[in-house]
């Protein structure tokens, strides 16, 4: 039995999310079925961070155990061929030792959130950005974001379906920058609560629109109350960028 | 009657091209119908360069004459609302004088061609790049591209359906650069023959793969024979970037 580490890119648009679900297409199911077709084995894929419906992946890390002897090149090429026409691609495959676990070995996760900030709606970027026509105040959003960095009880920014044991997390960094017609949020932490990134970005967007002051974000955080959430941003603009491991 | 200049962005994927055709969706028809719904007038849209099926536009210039008094903001917003769900957006609208003609006043056209050059197929960029898995030699392609710059008879790189009076054109510049996982071709000329950019990029890709030498491109050009064409690149990677006008 060999443990394989996979790096996966996907367009989350057509999927109900990463995790396998009855009667709904998922990234996990598509990849597992491609590997099963290739190997004749029933396999189980584990990932660094399960994504919601519509959320994209630039370099999601996953692992899977396969008994059949394979080389990395053949595994990657074979799975990619079998994944067609799903918009999922294995960027790389490598053998890892049995200690490696895509979820439990992961020591850091990076997300990107993209807002298309212009009057005209997206065309080529449809489904890949959140469109906000009103000009956003990036400096105010950056100031507000500072209140969210650090170790906090993020109950306000947590989905009611969140299964995490504790609402206390350490947000390593949350930076905001204008990139051409877009506004990008770069988010880094060891781990996140369910909907945390989208809840933070949605709330910061109210600051960008001038409806909230930066201090209102601090108040909402300290309230530890989901009712104080400003807004949950749509999944379209969210990208799982990468997972960090001690061995990298 | 007011002449309006429009800057238009579009995802060419779902369309049979810019130009109106019976029984096939076109960008021209979608925009004309949106303006007709808004104004109650029959209008005719002219553009800087008609694009083929699957070719994209980042900032296509077009013009249209409208009798109904409108302001630029209302025209742009109204047309964009009526264009839904087509992936077409009016980025800007401005009044111009009657001398302005999107096609005949245009003194320069810029195209971009994007190749995704990595083993794994595209996911988020599907339909928006040409995927080539084999590692391309960018230096060799750049050297070959130099043979195409300048004033030449481009018969070799011209579609049999081309309606241009003459195959002689001046290619102002054709540069090639690696941008992350992509290879970009930046192409500039006053005007182009039908399929010229795709024919040049397709042929240069053979140099990038090592199947042709840079000098073979010179020979193909000098042959003035469509049969000597290396390859016509697919439309997916082609973008009309912008049109230049003396008044800008």
Automatic annotation (TrEMBL), chains A, B:
GO terms for biological process: tRNA pseudouridine synthesis. This is tRNA pseudouridine synthase A. It catalyses: uridine(38/39/40) in tRNA = pseudouridine(38/39/40) in tRNA. CDD domains: PseudoU_synth_EcTruA (cd02570). The keyword tRNA processing applies. Belongs to the tRNA pseudouridine synthase TruA family. InterPro entries: PsdUridine_synth_cat_dom_sf (IPR020103), PsdUridine_synth_TruA (IPR001406), PsdUridine_synth_TruA_a/b_dom (IPR020097), PsdUridine_synth_TruA_C (IPR020095), TruA/RsuA/RluB/E/F_N (IPR020094). Signal peptide: none annotated. The keyword Glycoprotein does not apply. Its EC number is 5.4.99.12. Substrate binds at residue 111. It comes from Sphingomicrobium sediminis. Keywords: Isomerase, tRNA processing. The gene is truA. GO terms for molecular function: RNA binding; tRNA pseudouridine(38-40) synthase activity. Residues 8-104, 144-246 form the Pseudouridine synthase I TruA alpha/beta domain. The lineage of its organism: Bacteria, Pseudomonadati, Pseudomonadota, Alphaproteobacteria, Sphingomonadales.
């Amino acid at each position: 039995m060999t443990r394989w580490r996979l790096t996966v890119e996907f367009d989350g648009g057509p999927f109900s999310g990463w995790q396998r679900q009855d009667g709904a297409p998922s990234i996990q199911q598509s990849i597992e079925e491609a590997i099963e077709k290739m190997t004749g084995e029933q396999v189980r894929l584990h990932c660094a961070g399960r994504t919601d419906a519509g959320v994209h992946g630039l370099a999601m890390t996953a692992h899977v155990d396969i008994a059949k002897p394979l080389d990395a090149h053949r595994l990657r090429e074979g799975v990619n061929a079998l994944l067609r026409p799903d918009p999922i691609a294995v960027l790389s495959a490598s053998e890892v030792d049995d200690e490696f676990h895509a979820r439990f070995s992961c020591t850091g996760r990076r997300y990107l959130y993209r807002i298309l900030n212009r009057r005209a709606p997206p065309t080529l970027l449809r489904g890949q950005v959140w469109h906000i026509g009103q000009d956003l105040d990036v400096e105010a959003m950056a100031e507000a974001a500072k209140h969210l960095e650090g170790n906090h009880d993020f109950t306000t920014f947590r989905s009611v379906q969140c299964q995490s044991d504790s609402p206390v997390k350490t947000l390593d960094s949350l930076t905001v920058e204008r990139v051409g017609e877009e506004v990008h949020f770069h988010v880094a932490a060891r781990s996140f609560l369910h909907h945390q990134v989208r809840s933070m970005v949605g709330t910061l967007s109210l600051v960008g629109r001038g409806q909230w002051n930066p201090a209102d974000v601090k108040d909402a955080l300290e309230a530890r109350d989901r009712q104080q959430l400003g807004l949950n941003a749509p999944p379209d603009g969210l990208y799982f960028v990468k997972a960090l491991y001690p061995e990298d």
